[in-house]
Write a structure and sequence with these properties.
By secondary structure, the chain is α/β, with parallel strands linked by helices. It has three domains: 65 residues, no CATH class; 141 residues, Rossmann fold, CATH 3.40.50.2300; 94 residues, no CATH class. It is built from 14 helices and ten strands. It has a five-stranded parallel β-sheet with strand order 4-3-5-6-7, with helices on both faces. A three-stranded parallel β-sheet has the order 9-8-10, with helices on both faces. Helix 2 crosses helix 3, helix 5 packs parallel to helix 6 and helix 7 packs across helix 12. It comes from Brugia malayi. One of its GO terms (biological process) is signal transduction. Keywords: Membrane, Transmembrane, Transmembrane helix.
Length: 392
């Protein structure tokens, strides 16, 4: 701020001293001295006035610009706004393939996800939930649509580059489990850890909280499906106990039915209470009656890496296919682990090898080929089997 009094006093003293010095040698008369002093004072006052007015206008303009454009202000101003000691904006990296391909079973691509993210951020800003400078999104192509084997490399490169540029606070996306697993491992050691949120990653191994402490999966895992399959089809030792336990006596059931009929005939006003009591008195159905109780299971699934119909070389040797494991493989792998973990029978039966047959569904099949596969499956199950088919 400008001090007008001090500026004016200093100017008058300096000018008066100079004029007195010159008048001592007869250079100026008294009237001329007064006129010159008045003129110079006017110039000084106008200069101070102009500086004060236009300086205030510039300051107000900068202030209004900072309010209307908080993002630019946060970037140019080293004293940016912060939440819990964290400087804004929060930098979020989105890792997804640029286009669809046969490698991606979920169909999640950058062109599909980006408009949803943009609309969500705009809605959050307009509703006042977050400020305009709260989030900053960066998009990175994982190259998964081009080469599934190299997607892990490119995804990790994008994550490390963002972290080294101080633009990594959280990660969204991923369409393949390999890239997700690698980046979730390494980002747990970045600073205090970087959260990773994905709608993919249903491989059961990704549920290990010690290995992947900052990973959040929005759609659960294949282990949950394995639990359902176990309850639906698997044989369990406790079924033998259910079979030997005596059923409810006929006398108790008849007395229960007579009591219900008597209660029905008493009054219509008590119908709701009778219905409630009858539901409570209903015996639960034994779980052994709800499950199929299969013991001989064969897993048949699509997987290029282990396919029985892989291309062969000229000498008849099977060609080694450089491909990642399929979602079908990870699904049945979760089922196999869950069954052997929960059942002593399957743990013993599958101790050496789990009966399975993998094939490549993308390769053209010749007549009779599927029939030959089913014969193999039948032999694996000794003629009595339930084959679990899984196709991508």
């Amino acid at each position: 701020m400008i001090d007008f009094g001090l500026s004016l006093m200093a100017s008058i003293i300096v000018i008066k001293t100079i004029l007195e010095f010159w008048s001592h040698f007869g250079c100026f008369h008294r009237k001329k001295q007064t006129a010159i002093i008045s003129f110079i004072i006017s110039i000084i006052l106008f200069d101070n006035f102009a500086q004060a007015i236009f300086g205030q206008i510039i300051t107000d303009t900068i202030s209004r610009s900072a309010i209307n454009n908080p993002t630019d202000s946060a970037i140019n101003n080293p004293k940016r706004s912060a939440i819990n000691g964290h400087r804004l904006p929060f930098n979020i990296l989105v890792v997804l393939p640029e286009s669809e391909s046969n490698n991606d079973n979920f169909g999640i691509t950058m062109p599909k996800a980006r408009p949803v993210i943009d609309i969500s951020v705009m809605d959050a800003i307009r509703s006042g939930k977050i400020g305009a400078d709260f989030l900053n999104f960066t998009y990175h192509d994982s190259k998964f649509s081009e080469n599934a084997n190299l997607a892990e490399r490119f995804a990790t490169l994008g994550v490390v580059t963002a972290y080294c540029s101080h633009r990594l606070d959280a990660i969204l996306g991923f369409a393949d489990s390999y890239s997700l697993a690698t980046t979730s491992k390494i980002t747990a050691a970045f600073g205090n850890g970087v959260p990773v949120i994905t709608t993919a990653g249903m491989v059961s191994n990704l549920g290990d909280r010690q290995t992947y402490p900052f990973l959040t999966r929005m759609q659960g895992s294949y282990r949950q499906m394995a639990d359902s399959m176990y309850k639906l089809i698997a044989y369990r030792e406790e079924f033998e106990k259910d079979a030997t336990s005596p059923p409810p006596s006929s006398s108790s059931s008849s007395s229960s039915s007579s009591d219900k009929s008597n209660r029905r005939s008493t009054s219509n006003s008590n119908s709701n209470s009778r219905l409630h009591s009858s539901i409570q008195n209903r015996l639960p159905v034994p779980e052994s009656r709800l499950s199929l109780g299969y013991q001989n299971l064969v897993l048949m699934y699509h997987d290029k890496r282990r396919a029985i119909n892989r291309p062969r070389l000229a000498d008849g040797e099977v060609m080694v296919v450089e491909s990642v494991s399929s979602h079908c493989y990870f699904t049945l792998y979760a089922i196999k682990n869950f069954f052997t973990e929960k059942s002593a029978y399957f743990k013993e039966a599958w101790k050496i090898q789990t009966p399975s047959l993998a094939f490549d569904e993308e390769i053209a099949r010749i007549p009779g080929e599927i029939e030959s596969w089913l014969k193999i499956v039948s032999e694996l199950a000794n003629g009595a089997f339930l084959s679990l088919f899984y196709f991508d």
